[in-house]
């Protein structure tokens, strides 16, 4: 594509050199630059791309987009100076990849918990309906049935547009996408046109990045503020910020709730470890999911599918066939008569939701043993809260390592223990080795008990000192069960 066509998407402050150049690729990482590429220098949180302009040129870049021109201006290179490269890169990538969201319906799911479940279930449901569909999620990205590993909840703008471009080229009618607060704040989704947005809930998370809960909420709300008039905004009225999210949106507003009369109303009629019977808009449906939080997720899926024009009867039938997402309330039954549940819950609120769901099913007929940790180099403020919530609703708690990253696992455990008093500590063990912690919990379990292993869910690694080591909670549990 010609450079002059790409830069029409942004306001150019200064152009040095010819815009009549063929661009073969666009990059924000100088190491990935090849011949004929356009390099966009961004001032990131870790490094400043302006320091790598010469490296990008050495690797073959023929165009440089920057906020500050380098000292050396090379005659064979075109320089485009903008006021804000971070805000522009998404628009440039959208232009380069042929504006993919003008060719498919992109639905974004944002909130603290439930994003992966809702986006993945919509992807599965619309494939069942016979459409080609794309998925952008924490667990894995898909272009119809082709799996593409995911490194971030929301990829960088160039990867994002490249994936969406491929989806459009391969005939995908819909794409469902998790939209993280980081992606909104860093404008990774700039240039994309959404056909709909779904709000799940908002509780404390990512304050290591956003600093305050108010900033975190503003980031989520900005997604809905920027939805076009043609889109829908589906919000959760059971969250106190559900109405706040959509108060300034131009999109048409719809709501779902387990408590209040609204567009998509649900109620849990029966529940067990094999599923629930739900009432959705006065129709009963059996689903293979557990817990009120999953009932809420399924309502969001139902509402979004209806808003996309699918008949409610078809949507209910599809809901009854769907299975839980990997690592989300994954229930495994031991031959000794207890149940182990592997779940991604890594925030205080997510932990409360999962423990509530377990108690709703147990009804006092068994104990709850919880294995939980907290990630390193992330919001330290939630560590004592995680421990408090686990102790509040468990008969025994084993505090262990999660992904310590570059922190000492024992320091993280100590931060969690700091939230507990002397009485709390009577039911707490701390075991740094996660495998040993899971094994100990299973040894302590009696028939009818539930062992909750929280925090890592679908992840098949443990990150220690910058290295990812193979580690899969579900694999560990199945190994323990095989030896029983």
From TrEMBL:
Main EC class the enzyme belongs to: ligase
> Do you know which InterPro entries this protein is assigned to?
Mur-like_cat_sf, Mur_ligase_C, Mur_ligase_C_dom_sf, Mur_ligase_cen, Mur_ligase_N, MurE/MurF_N, UDP-N-AcMur-Glu-dNH2Pim_ligase
Its localization reads:
Cytoplasm
Give the CC-aspect GO terms. Answer: cytoplasm
Q: Which reaction does it catalyse?
A: UDP-N-acetyl-alpha-D-muramoyl-L-alanyl-D-glutamate + meso-2,6-diaminopimelate + ATP = UDP-N-acetyl-alpha-D-muramoyl-L-alanyl-gamma-D-glutamyl-meso-2,6-diaminopimelate + ADP + phosphate + H(+)
Give me the residues that bind ATP, please: 111-117
User: A Pfam family matched by this chain, by name?
Assistant: Mur_ligase
Residue positions binding meso-2,6-diaminopimelate: 378, 402-405, 455, 459
Which residue range or ranges hold the Mur ligase central domain?
Answer: 109-305
- Which modifications occur after translation, per UniProt? Carboxylation is probably crucial for Mg(2+) binding and, consequently, for the gamma-phosphate positioning of ATP.
In which pathway does this enzyme or protein participate? Answer: Cell wall biogenesis; peptidoglycan biosynthesis
N6-carboxylysine PTM positions read 220
The UniProt annotation places UDP-N-acetyl-alpha-D-muramoyl-L-alanyl-D-glutamate binding at 30, 153-154, 180, 186, 188
Q: What is its EC number?
A: 6.3.2.13
What role is this protein assigned?
A: Catalyzes the addition of meso-diaminopimelic acid to the nucleotide precursor UDP-N-acetylmuramoyl-L-alanyl-D-glutamate (UMAG) in the biosynthesis of bacterial cell-wall peptidoglycan.
Q: What is this protein called?
A: UDP-N-acetylmuramoyl-L-alanyl-D-glutamate--2,6-diaminopimelate ligase
UniProt organism field = Phocaeicola salanitronis (strain DSM 18170 / JCM 13657 / CCUG 60908 / BL78)
Organism lineage reads as:
Bacteria, Pseudomonadati, Bacteroidota, Bacteroidia, Bacteroidales
């Amino acid at each position: 594509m010609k450079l002059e066509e790409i830069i029409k998407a942004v306001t150019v402050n200064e152009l040095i050199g010819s815009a009549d150049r063929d661009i073969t690729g666009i990059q924000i990482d100088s190491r990935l630059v090849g011949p004929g590429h356009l390099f966009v220098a961004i001032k990131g949180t870790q490094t400043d791309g302006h320091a790598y302009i010469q490296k990008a040129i050495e690797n073959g870049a023929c165009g440089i987009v920057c906020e500050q021109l380098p000292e050396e201006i090379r005659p064979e290179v075109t320089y485009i100076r903008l006021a804000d490269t971070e805000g522009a890169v998404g628009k440039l990538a959208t232009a380069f990849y042929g504006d993919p969201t003008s060719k498919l319906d992109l639905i974004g799911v944002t909130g603290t918990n439930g994003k992966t479940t809702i986006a993945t279930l919509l992807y599965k449901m619309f494939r069942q309906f016979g459409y080609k569909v794309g998925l952008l999620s924490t667990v894995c990205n898909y272009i119809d049935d082709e799996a593409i590993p995911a490194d971030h909840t929301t990829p960088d703008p160039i990867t994002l547009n490249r994936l969406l471009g491929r989806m459009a080229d391969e005939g995908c009618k819909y794409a469902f996408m998790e939209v993280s607060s980081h992606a909104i704040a860093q404008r990774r989704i700039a240039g994309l046109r959404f056909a709909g947005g779904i709000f799940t809930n908002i509780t404390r998370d990512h304050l290591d990045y956003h600093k305050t809960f108010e900033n975190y909420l503003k980031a989520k709300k900005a997604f809905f503020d920027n939805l076009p008039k043609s889109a829908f905004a589906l919000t959760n009225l059971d969250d106190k910020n559900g109405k706040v999210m959509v108060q300034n949106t131009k999109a048409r507003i719809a709501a779902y709730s387990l408590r209040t009369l609204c567009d998509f109303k649900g109620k849990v009629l029966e529940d067990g470890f094999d599923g629930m019977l739900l009432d959705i808009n006065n129709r009963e449906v059996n689903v293979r999911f557990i817990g009120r939080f999953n009932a809420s997720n399924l309502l969001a899926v139902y509402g979004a599918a209806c808003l996309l024009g699918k008949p409610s009867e078809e949507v209910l039938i599809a809901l009854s066939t769907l299975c839980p997402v990997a690592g989300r309330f994954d229930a495994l039954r031991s031959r000794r008569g207890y149940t182990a549940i592997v779940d991604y819950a890594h925030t205080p609120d997510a932990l409360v939701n999962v423990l509530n769901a377990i108690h709703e099913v147990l009804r006092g007929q068994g104990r709850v043993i919880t294995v939980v940790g907290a990630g390193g180099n992330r919001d330290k403020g939630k560590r004592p809260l995680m421990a408090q919530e686990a102790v509040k609703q468990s008969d025994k708690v084993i505090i262990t390592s999660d992904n310590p990253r570059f922190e000492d696992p024992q320091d993280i455990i100590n931060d969690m223990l700091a939230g507990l008093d002397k009485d709390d500590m009577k039911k707490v063990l701390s075991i740094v080795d996660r495998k040993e912690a899971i094994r100990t919990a299973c040894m302590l379990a009696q028939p009818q008990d539930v062992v909750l292993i929280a925090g890592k869910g679908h992840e098949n690694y443990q990150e220690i000192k910058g290295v990812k080591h193979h580690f899969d909670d579900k694999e560990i549990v199945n190994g323990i069960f095989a030896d029983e």
